[in-house]
Design a protein that fits this description.
The chain has 229 residues and is α/β, with parallel strands linked by helices. It has 6 helices and 7 strands; from the N terminus they run E-H-E-E-H-E-H-E-H-E-H-H-E. It binds NADP nicotinamide-adenine-dinucleotide phosphate.
Length: 229
């Protein structure tokens, strides 16, 4: 991927760290963005940290403008930004939690899609890979706001796949089960981690979808549930 410019959102997150490293290992130029990202997060000359919010179209466009003005192009969007809230039934879900789930999991992808699609279409071979969740397809009790936000995200990505196939742009969404991240280890110290999904595996799938062999996969909704089927 030596001639590719990749934007990873949430690049310093539990999964985003692995996704960023996977693209760097493949020789890509990687711009990693999040609110608190630092240049020192990745020790690689091909890495550029770009701190910023993607909470509005304006802020998402500002990030993408910096990428295209500095590197002249954008080939891949790997969108990992997202967040979880659980423990409330639908009847008990408060407005703040509901809005936070929509902002983190749905609105963020909507803004970054609108900001990146024009540049991705220009390459004639652009790629979008977004991270949803198993909960998008399998809602469970107490995670209604999270599940709904991820389900709507899947719909957005599939629409983008249909709308942009004329420009050789693919858009796919990966649905991980519970991943083995530092945050999950801290939150669930007694859990059986053997069934958790490896973020490194998910990152390799993201990189594969962005590579030459991934060009025929478009509009896919890909479950990655590990052994917890
Ligand atoms: N962990 C799991 O078990 C699991 C399971 C299924 C699906 N997923 C999904 O997988 C994705 C990654 O999960 P994760 O566990 O790696 O999450 P994480 O560790 O919490 O990382 C989230 C990332 O998003 C960034 N971020 C949050 N809000 C932002 C904003 N407004 N603007 C820009 N950046 C923002 C955070 O960095 P800053 O704080 O620096 O902004 C961080 O880099 C998420 O979409 C999540 O829903 C996770």
């Amino acid at each position: 991927m030596k001639d590719k410019v990749v934007l990873v959102t949430g690049a310093n997150g539990g999964l985003g760290t692995f996704v960023t490293q996977a693209f760097l290992d493949a020789g890509a130029t990687v711009v990693g963005t999040s609110r608190k990202i630092n240049q020192s997060d990745f020790n690689n000359p091909q890495f550029t940290a770009l701190s910023g919010e993607i909470s509005s179209l304006q802020t998402a466009r500002a990030i993408v403008d910096q990428v295209t003005s500095r590197f002249g192009r954008l080939d891949v969007l790997a969108h990992t930004v997202g967040g979880f809230a659980g423990g409330q039934s639908i009847a008990a879900t408060d407005d703040i939690t509901y809005q936070r789930m929509l902002d983190m999991n749905l609105n963020s992808v909507f803004h970054i899609l609108r900001a990146t699609i024009p540049a991705l279409r220009q390459t004639g071979d652009g790629r979008i890979i977004a991270i949803g969740s198993r909960a998008a397809l399998e809602p469970g009790a107490g995670v209604g706001a999270y599940s709904a936000s991820k389900a709507a995200m899947v719909s957005l990505i599939r629409t983008v796949a249909t709308e942009n196939k004329d420009a050789g742009l693919t858009a796919n969404v990966i649905l991980p089960g519970t991943m083995d991240t530092p945050t999950n280890r801290a939150a669930m110290p007694m859990a059986d981690r053997s069934k958790w999904v490896s973020p490194a595996s998910v990152a390799q799938l993201v990189r594969w979808l962005a590579g030459a062999a991934g060009k025929d996969v478009n509009g896919a909704v890909i479950p990655v549930y590990g052994s917890d089927l």
